[in-house]
Design a protein that fits this description.
By secondary structure, this protein is α/β, with parallel strands linked by helices. The chain has a domain of about 300 residues: 3-Layer(aba) Sandwich (Alkaline Phosphatase, subunit A). The protein has 15 helices and 16 strands. A hairpin with a 2-residue loop joins strand 8 and strand 9.
Length: about 525
């Protein structure tokens, strides 16, 4: 009797039992039954969460935070004006994986399912016939997105792989309903930022974690002065060096060609570098203070500068680990026969009274992100200065894989990798919320940025007293975005007509969009 179990379903069921020990056998099974081309280069996609281009010496930051990225840049295309589609992980990661802006994929929260009309339009489905596809992310919100696209993955490593200690339940079972239910239970039991409803279960969980941490505390206390790094919305603790080594080992066990999506949590808050990096920027430097923004917070500059110091140290720690990862890929031979992509999902802000990225603001440190791409055998650096967006990743990966750009992808093939130079293109960024929370409803509150050439216009809509606020910046002459020229620069009026037209399109209920 012939089995109805497909190869992809078999690989999923096998991977659910154990991930790392089965990688070699799983790949062997796939390659034995597929006509995957041995001449097709691998694609290794490496993303570090909340990494702003504004804090990298590679892009001119005052502190030397990224010597290893600069070393990698010698054999890469370096994109100097790359932007995220949002300042939020869920918005931006969904845009990256689908090649569409947030108003199309409409995944604006971890509980928002992909629309059935667009769910199949993702990078994993697009590349599925040419690559063995594996994905790993430490970010729980990004992992929930991967689980919603799980049917297109050949291997999905759990988000707490390579971790030191901790508990998670949400990825134990498949299915979107179970995913959301168990995610809620995780928050209920494990998230210590909120009060638990069950004192008994909370105490048991805390006791278990504390015992585990205590067993490791003597060795690790001196290593991590600010505490052991922890995954947000969980009690999962990890050592960045162990995760780096785990990822390198995982990649080394994959047969080619493979598309590997790797999403590290650092340097996301809470900024916990090792002792070697903690004091490396005790230089007394602080940027000139900026006026607090009416839609921002009221944190004092002294506190913001302390957080900036810790963030910069953590960024340098991340850069060191990235350098170790690249060295291991070079030793294994993967670097020579792979496209290696380095980027982030969004940036981080330490100014205008605001910290982090959970904000309505869309200033450049929040949406200007790094992008470096090394092609197989590349030996020289290439610099690209025109505007690009993370919605360009999907059509670019399709192009280098000899797949036609799909009609539904709004991004462009990146210049330097087959795309045309387009100095007049529009690049958009958005953070928004649906009216009543429903995906089918109108977008009620929104921040929408239009970058065009050297200019930038932002519209803040629906925020209390700032119901219709515009800000316009000449980024060439004012890269710090200090001089709002909305009322004085005639180009602002031209860009407003374009932005307002787009706003009217995207705020509509979904039935008018599909």
């Amino acid at each position: 009797m012939k089995s109805n179990l497909t190869r992809r379903e078999f690989l999923k069921s096998a991977g659910a039992i154990s991930i790392i020990p089965l990688l070699n056998r799983i790949n062997a099974n796939k390659l034995a039954g597929d006509s995957l081309s041995s001449e097709q280069p691998n694609i290794i996609f490496i993303l570090f969460d909340a990494l702003s281009a504004f804090h990298l010496s590679l892009y001119g930051y005052q502190r030397e935070t990224s010597p290893n990225l600069e070393r990698f840049a010698r054999r890469s295309i370096v994109y100097h004006n790359h932007h995220s589609a949002s300042n939020h992980t869920i918005h931006s990661t969904s845009s990256l994986l689908t090649g569409t802006y947030p108003w199309t994929h409409r995944t604006l929260s971890s509980k928002s399912p992909y629309l059935e009309e667009t769910k199949r339009n993702n990078i994993f489905n697009l590349l599925g016939d040419k690559f063995f596809q594996t994905a790993f992310t430490q970010n729980i919100n990004a992992d929930k997105i991967l689980y919603k696209l799980d049917r297109y993955l050949d291997q999905h490593a759990q988000h707490d792989s390579f971790s030191l200690i901790g508990n998670s339940l949400y990825d134990t079972f498949s299915g979107e309903t179970a995913l959301n239910a168990l995610s809620g239970l995780d928050n209920f039991l494990f998230d210590r930022d909120v009060v638990h409803g069950s004192l008994f279960l909370s105490i048991l969980n805390d006791l278990n974690t504390r015992i585990g941490l205590k067993n490791n505390s003597k060795e690790l206390k001196g290593m991590y002065p600010y505490g052991i790094p922890k995954l947000a919305m969980s009690n999962v603790y990890f050592l960045l060096s162990e995760v780096t080594d785990g990822v390198a080992d995982m990649l080394g066990k994959l047969n080619s060609p493979h598309f590997s999506y790797i999403h590290f949590m650092p340097p996301h808050a809470g900024y916990q570098p090792t002792s070697e990096f903690m004091d490396m920027f005790d230089d007394g430097w602080a940027p000139a203070p900026k006026d607090k923004h009416p839609l921002g917070k009221k944190i004092k500059d002294k506190q913001l500068n302390k957080l900036r110091h810790r963030y910069d140290a953590f960024v340098s720690n991340v850069d060191y680990e990235f350098g170790r990862l690249i060295d291991q890929l070079e030793i294994s031979g993967l670097l020579e026969n792979s496209y290696v992509i380095f980027t982030s999902d969004h940036g981080e802000l330490f100014e205008r009274g605001t910290r982090g990225h959970v904000t309505k603001l869309l200033f450049e440190p929040l949406i200007h992100i790094p992008l470096l791409i090394s092609s197989p055998g590349q030996r020289e650096r290439v610099d690209i200065h025109e505007l690009t967006s993370n919605v360009d990743i999907l059509p670019t990966l399709a192009h280098i894989s000899n797949i036609q750009k799909p009609d539904w992808a709004v991004g462009e093939i990146l210049p330097g990798l087959g795309g045309a130079h387009n100095p007049d293109r529009n690049v958009w960024s958005l953070i928004g919320w649906f009216m009543g929370g429903g995906q089918q409803s109108e977008i009620e509150r929104v921040s929408l940025a239009l970058n065009k050439g050297e200019y930038k216009l932002v519209k803040y809509h629906g925020y209390g007293s700032a119901k219709n606020r515009y800000e316009f910046y000449d980024l060439r002459n004012d890269p710090e975005e200090l001089d709002n020229q909305y009322k004085s620069n005639p180009i602002a009026k031209e860009m407003r007509a374009e932005l307002d037209q787009k706003f009217e399109e995207i705020k509509s209920p979904i039935e008018k969009l599909v």
